Amino acid sequence: MPWVLSALVLTVAFWVLAFCGFDNYPSSRLLALCFAPFGALLRWYLSLYNSKPMCKRFPFFTFLPNVAASCLSCAMEIVGSVVYQDSASAYRHFVMYGQGAVMVGFLGSLSTVSTWVNELDGLSSRRLFWAYRYGLASVIISQLASVFILGMYDAYGSDPLIG
């Protein structure tokens, strides 16, 4: 029971410090700590569906969060480039909330490398082909989706990408 009390105290402290304590870069890292559990919980909840027979050879419900987080990270980069053009104070808030809370916290926990490696290890113990297929599909589809999203914005967006 003491660990529950410690977790609650730390949670409250991180949220209070993130929103009331600082208005700078360290605060964005505290926001990442605040939003990371939500990404991890969503990933864990989705991974429960990998026990279905259709996911035996390809863990789709851990593949989906990886690709979705990659696509959402690209979208956040586009938002950051537009906000950067608007004003310095707006970009500072984007760095805190957009990059700190959403990209590093939520999306970073949604697409963890450790779970991806664990899936690859589990698949390779059954059949090496399944592991290669899952690993290559994850990397290639995420890269293609990222190139598509950023390329479409670069070609048809109103402002150039920065960073």
Task: Summarize this entry quickly.
Belongs to the fluoride channel Fluc/FEX (TC 1.A.43) family. The chain has helices at residues 2-21, 25-47, 60-86, 88-110, 113-126, 128-156.
Helix-strand blueprint:
Layout: H1 2-21, H2 25-47, H3 60-86, H4 88-110, H5 113-126, H6 128-156
Helix pairs in contact: 1-2, 2-4, 3-4, 3-6, 5-6
Catalytic activity: fluoride(in) = fluoride(out)
Subcellular location: Cell membrane
Protein name: Fluoride ion transporter CrcB
Q: How does this structure look, described?
A:
The protein has one domain (2-156). 83% of the residues lie in helices and 0% in strands. It has helices at 2-21, 25-47, 60-86, 88-110, 113-126, 128-156. The mean pLDDT is 84.
Keywords:
163 residues, 6 helices, mainly alpha
Determine the strand fraction and express it as a percent band: under 5%
Instruction: List the total number of helices.
Output: 6
**How much helix is in the residues?**
over 70%
**Alpha-carbon Rg, integer:** 18 Å
Transmembrane segments: 28-46, 58-84, 96-118, 130-153
Function: Fluoride channel required for the rapid expulsion of cytoplasmic fluoride.
Subcellular location: Cell membrane
GO cellular component, one term: plasma membrane
